[in-house]
Each structure stands twice: as C-alpha cells, then as structure tokens.
Design a protein that fits this description.
Length: about 300
C-alpha cells in the first residue's frame, strides 16, 4: 500500500551539476539549501489516519467512500475495527479488505472489532502478526488491543505487555492504545451515562455489547504511571459512528480518550486525522469529513 511512499523517501535529491560561473553557483547553492530544507521539514512531519466501522451489512463490501480513499497519502493507517460485516469469515473477504488496507504493512495497525472477530487464526495469517501487540515508531509507542478476546476485558497477556511498556518506556513522547470497544466508558461515572448517545453498542454481556471490564482496575493505574513520566497517553476507540461520529474526553489525570467511526452512507461521516512533528515531539489531531480526504 505504501510502496510508492517508501520509494519516494528513498529518492536522491542532490542538485544538478553546478556550472563554474559564480552567479549560477550561488543560485544553485541557495536552491539546493531551500530544497534540502523543504524535504527535511516534510520528512519530520508525518500524518496518520484513524478509521473505523467501515462495514456494510454484508460481506465483503465496505463503505463506498472508504473504498475510494488513497491510503498511501498517509504515513500510517490505524484501523479501529468492524472493517466488514464478518471480516475474517472467509479468505475472500480478507483478500478484499487486504487489497484496500494492506493489512500486513507494518504501518497498518488494526484493532479487531466484534464484526472482525470470526477467525483469529485467519486474521493473523493475513496481518502476519499477533492480534494484540506493541509497536514503536518515530518516538511513539503503540499498544494494539484486542477487546473481543475476553468480553471487553484486557486479558492477562495484554496486561503483561502493558506492564512491560510501563516499566521500560523511556524514549517515547506518546503512548497510544488502539482498541475497538469504548472500554473506558464503563465504570467511569462521567462517561457511563453517555454510553447510549456515543457508543455503537449499549452496556451488556453479549459479544456485541460494551461489557463490564477491568480497564480502570488493572490498566488505568499503569497508564497514570506512564503519564506521570511526562509521556502523553491517548486511548483511541473505534466502536462509534452510528449515534455520533466523534468523541473526546480528558481525565483529571491527563489521559485522553478519543473515538471515531463512520456510519454507512452518512454524508457527515468523519475520520480522525493526526499530524506528528517528530522533531518537536508533538502530536495534534482533528476530525475531518471523510469526503475531504479523497484524492
């Protein structure tokens, strides 16, 4: 998917051969410095797209606008789940979404949703990685969670990974948790009352519900420890879009919860776009209409 961008980054931008005339030499040197500065600046600023809930009501199709987007314009693609109706039900559907999102690309991070979770083995075969994992790139640490594995709970394996990150995180400016279910709404008195106006699913105990979970008991204290080290912590969920297409909340401890997702055929569908300045170690975001990022 991002092969063109990788080739672009490997191009050699040396100036043309310089002629001996002094004036021409000066012009070429100035031009060379300007070009070098321009591309150095571009290389320091990356753009990331968070996209979720692209499914239709039958396999293998996804939302028609999401299908048309040129994803190579972004340096990373973060998928928040519910890509197709039952994404991993068969190879044909996986091949279809893989053709759009390039699932095995190291810059495509996919947090599995309830509509994706049919065959964990098939998902791993296409992504060539575990269904939950940690990842580090350009000064940001990512933890991709599988909130379907244990009924919205962060299971022991994922908690162990979070513990290791808490103990060893040193060089990152940010920690980003990518997940599907809005697990931080359950058990938070300020957010739980908003579930039915924000989350695609209500509180409950079915596989499609926002289940009771251990986020605040076992994961959140570790996130506070990381935030206390001066590292910005973001939790980004994807089970949203039907009732509202954006959500943002920052806790008193400084942990930010974000959510973004689309609703099939809605003209007001939005995506979440991030801009990362590697040099200044800053990450900013904004919600954009999905139509605005078409080529």
């Amino acid at each position: 998917m991002r092969a063109l961008k990788k080739n672009w980054q490997n191009l050699d931008y040396r100036s043309p051969d310089i002629q001996p005339e002094k004036f021409y030499l000066t012009r070429c040197l100035i031009l060379s410095l300007v070009i070098s500065s321009l591309f150095s600046c571009k290389d320091n600023v990356k753009t990331y797209l968070f996209l979720s809930h692209t499914r239709t009501d039958s396999n293998p199709k996804i939302d028609s606008i999401a299908e048309k987007i040129d994803y190579s314009q972004f340096d990373m693609l973060w998928l928040g789940g519910d890509i197709a109706w039952y994404t991993s039900a068969d190879d044909a559907t996986m091949e279809y979404v893989d053709g759009i999102f390039d699932l095995s690309d190291e810059n495509t991070l996919w947090a599995i949703g309830n509509h994706d979770y049919f065959s964990a083995e098939r998902i791993q075969r296409f992504t060539k990685r575990p269904n939950s994992y940690g990842y580090f790139k350009n000064g940001i640490t990512y933890l991709v969670l599988n909130t379907q594995d244990s009924a919205s709970n962060i299971n022991a394996e994922q908690l162990e990974l979070l513990t290791k990150i808490t103990d060893t995180i040193k060089y990152s400016s940010h920690l980003i948790l990518l997940h599907h279910k809005l697990i931080w709404m359950y058990g938070n008195p300020d957010l739980e009352v908003l579930v039915d106006s924000v989350s695609n699913v209500s509180l409950g105990t079915s596989s499609h519900s926002l289940n009771p979970n251990n986020f605040y008991q076992e994961a959140y204290p570790k996130l506070i420890d990381i935030a206390n080290k001066g590292i910005t912590v973001l939790c980004i969920g994807g089970d949203i879009g039907i009732k509202t297409n954006e959500f943002e909340h920052t806790t008193i401890e400084g942990i930010t919860f974000l959510a973004s997702g689309i609703n099939l055929g809605d003209k007001n569908n939005q995506v979440l776009l991030f801009e990362h300045d590697i040099k200044s170690r800053t990450l900013t975001w904004k919600y954009r209409l999905i139509n605005s990022i078409l080529d």
